[in-house]
Amino acid sequence: MNKHILVVGAGIGGLTAASLLAKHGENVTLLESSSELGGCAGKFKRHNYVFPVGATLGMGLEPGGIHERVFRYLEKPMTLQPLDQVMQMVHPHATFTFYKDRAQHVEQMTSHFPQASQNITAFYREIYQTAATVRTLMDRLPVLPPTTAKEWLYLIGSLQPKHIRLLPYFNQTLEKRLRVHGLSKLPEFRHMIDGLLIDSMQTGSEDVSYLLAAIALDIYHEGAYYVPGGLYQLAEKMGESFIENGGTLKKRRTVKKLERKNNQWRATDHRGNTYDAQHVVLNVPIHQLPNILAPDLLRQLKKPLREGMTTPTWTTLALYIAVDWRKLQAPLPPFRQISLDGEQGLAEVGHFFMSVSTPADSLRAPEGIQTITISTHSEAHRWDTKEKYDAVRDELSERMLEAIEKVIPHIRQAIVHFETGAPKGWERYTGRPNGYVGGFPQTLKSSLFNSISHQSGLENLYVCGDHIFPGGGTIGAATSGIHAARSISGERLI
């Protein structure tokens, strides 16, 4: 008999779990509080302009990548534009181009730092070898931390003799490997590396887990893509598949309470509607759990999940801009990082990421217009009063525009639409308390075996999203959704 499954939240994690389970033939209901799918990878429209909520650089879409495997299983091919030049990285001392080709990328780095040519070559050789070894585990996708006998057996069965070489690195940071290779005191190189890591790992080289940093620094070489329209297309495709396979999707349904009734789960939404299910997948920010679960259920959650509920993460300030590129010297490139003086750090406009629509992308803007999504990391305490909030929003917005104008002269004159997405906006539209986004920094204390499992600790209740193993980004959220779907179906699925 088919299971009755409730998925709460149509972010990438929830959509992945829901669409896989519906394709598998299960009876699935998906509740989403917004009118849009995708959560932080969703979209919104202003006039004739479509803005992806977050960054739009597509990864995990290469053959064998996490998203590609999901869409192959769903029989939903994606329209993609592969990037040989992934992004520009603008730093005070130099502008780098991130090349898909590994050899070309290393050659460029050594040309910028000829005095450390051999050290950089050896460093990248180790990074690429380590990433290739870690990637051999991704075919089977074992769960960390394993919490059931089945998960332990699956992990052990996934290990090969080659994985022994990873053991010395398991409790090392990238900082340690930079020291080994004589690069820790090359600040310009470290600053460039830190700019890449803050966007994917939510932390820099000093604290990031080396094994995860190796994947983060290598993954762009596996395949990076421009997705016409934006990454919300992933959500739209999964939503289509979900409906086609008999799933029930209800938008504008905010779950206010989740409780156990007669050995089943019962969710109650803000309209008083109730939904009974044998299994529940929560793709909601874990900081919301105290608002949904009664105290007696909260006490039964696994300890890492309980601790994570009270742990703050980064917030963000996003700028959403439409420009008439014909007023500029040339169309803007699709992806660009801008980093300021390394002494300023990686937050509060010390570093930010720009995603820009291509001139030919009619899904985003009419002819002659490019839409831009820009985001920077910020600390939540900077926004905790009304007086601070308005001042910080205006200050950071102006500093970003000033920094952009140094790279793109006269951009202000080309702006035809401008608005901000500050933490309260993220809280209002994505349900994230205090505007927390991006998941936890992937440090040794919060990654790998110290991650939060998708197994909540409560019977038939699972969690997924960017706070759950393996962490932030669409790939991490999708993987946690895969793990939840596997636990419910009892099948590998992909």
UniProtKB/TrEMBL annotation:
Residue ranges occupied by any Amine oxidase domain in the UniProt entry: 12-488
Family matches, as InterPro entries: Amino_oxidase (IPR002937), CrtISO-like (IPR045892), FAD/NAD-bd_sf (IPR036188)
PANTHER family with a match to the protein in the record: PROLYCOPENE ISOMERASE, CHLOROPLASTIC (PTHR46313:SF3), PTHR46313
Record-given protein name: Phytoene desaturase family protein
Organism listed in the record: Paenisporosarcina macmurdoensis
